[in-house]
Specification:
The complex is a heterodimer.
Chain A: H1 3-15, H2 26-31, H3 36-93, H4 98-122, H5 124-144, H6 153-193
Helix pairs in contact in A: 3-4, 3-5, 3-6, 4-6, 5-6
Chain B: H1 26-29, H2 34-43, H3 45-85, H4 91-108, H5 111-137, H6 148-160
Classes of the chains: A mainly alpha, B mainly alpha.
Chain lengths: ~190, ~170
């Protein structure tokens, strides 16, 4: 940290109405000897590791999970609907098992409908797209900025500003998506009930 | 292949993930940032943990309510068919009636909307705080002046009070 930064911190402590603790840690004492360039380099490493990589990992994991869930939902719905159709057809052909198979068909069809509602509640395909888009924007930006450590402090700040905007934008879109998914799910429920 | 479809299902006993804004060992790893990391942990850390934990709880509660509604509605439909098949029996009609009342009660509690709102507010708040923490470390405006610590504190107050940070 530079002398300027150290002064800033002292002023901020006073502005916040707090006193500097009498016993500083070794890290704090050592921090005062760092230059602005060294601080920027350390920040760049921290940001790349704990913000960008962490968030990219999150997007990647959630996207993959949502894509798998979407495919599984399609397969499960198809299986349930097929079994319902089989139960209904066999029930029609076998009079002795008609009632039992008709009930089975009704439960299987209801399970397929419930799965559709569950799928719209979690909005798997749209979640996957949202995270894929955020992942691509972030990857493109960090690739364009190359290693953050190679940039000047001003350039690093500009990249950080843009990256943080992407995160806030993604959070806003996610909020809209959740609200929209809930509305859609409610719409499906009304149809199921009616 | 894991069952991703139900990976995020609501749980009766929710296992909360410990919120980590910035890992504690970073103060040693990045000594030039030690003072700012300490400030971030002091000023943002507690509020971030609260928002994050509340978001996890609200999310689980919201999904729980929705899944209960889905299951109850599906069962009502299915037992409606059973009632049609056993028209001479009384019990399927009773089951349908009970499920119908249950569905109406869950949907009509009004908690459904509140749970969703809480979930969104808490998660958005946590993400805003996380973003403020890194903006502070990057010395982005408004955290580039002499009063940067108090600016950070006022952003936390804004987020906690549900206001748009200035």
């Amino acid at each position: 940290m530079t002398e300027h930064a150290a002064t800033e911190q002292t002023a901020a402590e006073q502005a916040a109405g707090e006193q500097t603790p009498p016993e500083q840690t070794a890290a704090e004492q050592t921090a005062t000897v760092y230059t602005a360039g060294e601080r920027a380099a350390q920040f760049a490493r921290l940001y790349a590791e704990d913000r960008v990589r962490h968030q990219l990992g999150f997007y990647s994991q959630r996207r993959a999970e949502a894509e798998r869930a979407h495919v599984q939902a399609i397969h499960a719905k198809w299986t349930l609907a097929t079994l319902a159709a089989i139960a209904g057809s066999v029930g029609a052909a076998v009079p002795s098992a008609r009632v039992a198979l008709a009930i089975a068909a009704a439960f299987l069809a209801a399970a397929a409908t419930a799965l559709t509602a569950y799928q719209s509640l979690y909005a798997f395909p749209r979640i996957a797209k949202l995270y894929r888009d955020a992942e691509m924007s972030l990857s493109a930006l960090t690739a364009a900025g190359n290693a953050l450590g190679d940039l000047t402090p001003e350039q690093t700040r500009a990249v950080v500003d843009r990256v943080e905007r992407i995160f806030l934008q993604e959070t806003g879109q996610w909020g809209q998506l959740i609200r929209h998914a809930a509305d859609e799910h409610e719409h499906n429920e009304v149809h199921t009930r009616s | 292949m894991t069952i991703a479809l139900f990976g995020r299902r609501p749980r009766l006993r929710l296992r909360l993930t410990n919120p980590v804004l910035i890992p504690a060992d970073r103060i040693e790893s990045y000594p030039a940032l030690a003072g700012d990391l300490k400030t971030v942990n002091e000023v943002i850390g507690p509020a971030f943990s609260e928002f994050d934990i509340n978001a996890q709880r609200a999310q689980n509660r919201y999904w729980g309510q929705q899944v209960i509604l889905i299951v109850v509605t599906a069962l009502t439909t299915a037992f409606g068919s059973v009632q049609a098949a056993f028209s001479h029996q009384v019990w399927p009609g009773v089951v349908v009636a009970v499920l119908g009342v249950l569905a109406a009660a869950v949907a009509g509690l009004g908690e459904e909307v509140a749970a969703q709102r809480t979930y969104l507010e808490q998660r958005t708040g946590a993400e805003r705080l996380r973003s403020a923490a890194f903006a502070y470390l990057a010395e982005l405006p408004p955290y580039n002046g002499h009063d940067r610590r108090s600016k950070l504190a006022s952003v936390v107050v804004d987020v906690v009070q549900g206001r748009e940070p200035q």
